[in-house]
Amino acid sequence: MKINGTPYRSVWLDADGRSIRIFDQTRLPWAVEELVLSDEEAVAHAIRSMQVRGAPLIGAVGAYGLAMALRRDPSIENLERSAAMLNETRPTAVNLKWALDRICAAVRNHPPERRAEAAYAEAAAICDDDVETNRKIGEHGLELLKEIAARKPPGEPVRVLTHCNAGWIATVDYGTALSPIYQAHDAGMDVHVWVDETRPRNQGALTAWELGSHGVPHTFVTDNAGGHLMQHGMVDIVIVGTDRVTRNGDVANKIGTYLKALAAKDNDIPFWVALPHSTLDMSVRDGLTEIPIEERSSAEVTATTGRLPKGGVGAIRVAPESSPAANPAFDVTPARLVTGLITERGRCGASEEALSALYPEKV
Ligand SMILES: CSC[C@H]1O[C@H](OP(=O)(O)O)[C@H](O)[C@@H]1O
């Protein structure tokens, strides 16, 4: 997508042909700063610290990190050790393991001197695949928004509520939950987005930055406002991204998603989840008991980061020093609360039967 008129992806190969460049998402939306990552340890730190974040994007960046590890040492031992190290950086988004496994499979049968080159080529293919996948998610999601628009009086916007950031900055490009919104806006449809701030890391500020940069009307709201907006008929549809969808349609996503799904169910509002194939984990059935939920530092809860009154960006405490804090970073929405899934292959129900029909090769 564009930043000040210049098209970007959220990760790209540096001119040196071996490092990658990303935007430091801990500095967004206050500053647009590029970071150069030149080895697997720098990649691991960027993922752990959420300098780079978003399920599909951490997969793509992790893939390049493994390629960098192979440049240093192309042995299978180092391949497996580095893949394990990178995979441990964040446990919930299955895209990271999916991408690392894809790199391992792509290089394993090459002679050592060819492995790094093959890994870089596969990482580039993962990025290109993600861009095209998300574009298609946008097309299929656009049809859904058109169906809603057709039922509304002319000039009334389709009102979408979204949680966290599943936009272009969370993927290689286009985003997942935001992809249909961008395509609807670009097609001239009246759309308005309720943007959940998404405590504690406030990824909603990234969504607001993305939508504002693209000229999409939106309103920034607290996480706790969503239920009220739905009760008062101010939401037509909820569309969120996801970090892992199980074979029976359970959805792991940013903490607070489950509460939005409950409110949507209680108010008969469609709750849709946008996902690329790399987010589907057919090896897991029961999301609540089988998906690992990342526990992040309590400091992310007791302090919040933003632009300081006297300028600059910094953190301020929002809880007493004496108070312990807990920080589960994701939750699981059971399939029974999900109206449907928007994928690159079309829309389907949140069920094993529907997912198996859409992805027979994964069964
Ligand atoms: C298309 S991004 C999917 C998913 O990833 C985000 O998590 P995080 O910001 O912690 O990396 C969020 O849960 C998004 O919905």
What do these coordinates show?
With 363 residues, the chain is an alpha/beta fold. It has 2 domains: 2-129, translation initiation factor eif-2b, domain 1 (Four Helix Bundle (Hemerythrin (Met), subunit A)); 136-362, Rossmann fold. It is 39% helix and 19% strand. It has 12 helices and 18 strands. A 7-stranded mixed β-sheet has the order 8-7-6-9-12-17-18, sandwiched between helices. The chain has a 4-stranded mixed β-sheet with strand order 13-10-11-16, with helices on one face. Strand 1 and strand 2 (6-7) form a beta hairpin. Helix 2 packs antiparallel against helix 3 (76-87), helix 2 (55-72) runs parallel beside helix 4 and helix 3 (76-87) packs antiparallel against helix 4. It is globular and about 65 Å long. The mean pLDDT is 97. Ligand LNRAV4D5 binds next to helix 2 and strand 11.
Question: Quick recap of the structure?
Answer:
With 363 residues, the protein is of the alpha/beta class. It is 39% helix and 19% strand. It folds into two domains: 2-129, Up-down Bundle (Four Helix Bundle (Hemerythrin (Met), subunit A)), CATH 1.20.120.420; 136-362, Translation initiation factor eif-2b, domain 2 (Rossmann fold).
Topology, pairings included?
Layout: E1 2-3, E2 6-7, E3 11-13, E4 20-23, E5 34-37, H1 40-48, H2 55-72, H3 76-87, H4 94-107, H5 112-150, E6 158-162, H6 179-186, E7 191-196, H7 204-214, E8 218-221, H8 226-231, E9 237-240, E10 244-246, E11 251-254, H9 257-266, E12 271-274, E13 280-281, H10 287-290, H11 299-302, E14 303-307, E15 313-317, E16 330-333, E17 340-343, E18 346-348, H12 352-358
Helix pairs in contact: 1-2, 2-3, 2-4, 2-5, 3-4, 4-5, 5-6
This protein binds the ligand CSC[C@H]1O[C@H](OP(=O)(O)O)[C@H](O)[C@@H]1O.
The ligand CSC[C@H]1O[C@H](OP(=O)(O)O)[C@H](O)[C@@H]1O is lined by residues 53-56, 164, 166, 170-171, 176, 203, 240-243, 253-254, 329.
